[in-house]
Write a structure and sequence with these properties.
Layout: H1 5-21, H2 26-29, H3 39-59, H4 67-71, H5 82-100, H6 105-108, E1 113-114, E2 117-118, H7 123-147
Helix pairs in contact: 1-7, 3-5, 3-7
């Protein structure tokens, strides 16, 4: 676990998302209740954001370059394989952690430079955006699962024993 509070919050949030996705079948994962996207798309979409922020732009690594075209913001709706999207999500979040686990409060307060240009949000703001994006789609996934008739969905927020508040 990172010593950085926002990074630990992201990791907790990922865990809550993973709990919401647990037990979803491939058939249910590609069902759409328009205008919402399907569960498999949501998993890939969140992986895509982490890939863009923490792997491609922050580390200069290229993994899953096709993901943005498949599940990126503003792209046409798609129904990818849940198994493939969760595999991508696991690989991307592990690669993202290589960068995230190095963050310090000083780095969080800087404006990253991507493609030779400084962007308008600090690293810490991007991290908060990533966390809030997860919560948005975790709630959406809960709604989709309810519409699919799934019972005994995870209760939110889950066990926080490992994620107690601590001073930075």
């Amino acid at each position: 676990m990172s010593d950085q509070l926002l990074v630990s919050q992201l990791k907790f949030t990922r865990g809550e998302f993973a709990r919401m996705m647990a037990g979803v079948s491939e058939a249910d994962a590609i069902k759409r209740f328009e205008p919402m996207n399907c569960l498999a798309w949501i998993a890939g979409h969140l992986a895509n954001q982490e890939n863009r922020y923490w792997v491609q732009r922050s580390q200069g690594k290229i993994i899953y370059p096709e993901l943005n075209d498949l599940v990126g913001y503003g792209k046409p709706a798609s129904t990818p394989s849940l198994q493939e999207m969760l595999a991508a999500w696991k690989e991307i979040t592990a690669a993202a952690d290589d960068y995230l686990d190095t963050l310090t409060p000083a780095v969080l307060d800087t404006f990253p430079v991507w493609g030779g240009k400084q962007i308008g949000e600090k690293v810490g703001t991007l991290l908060m955006r990533n966390i809030y994006h997860y919560w948005y789609h975790t709630g959406e996934a809960a709604a989709i699962r309810q519409m699919l008739g799934h019972k005994d969905l995870p209760e939110y927020i889950g066990d926080m024993a490992e994620w107690q508040y601590r001073k930075e």
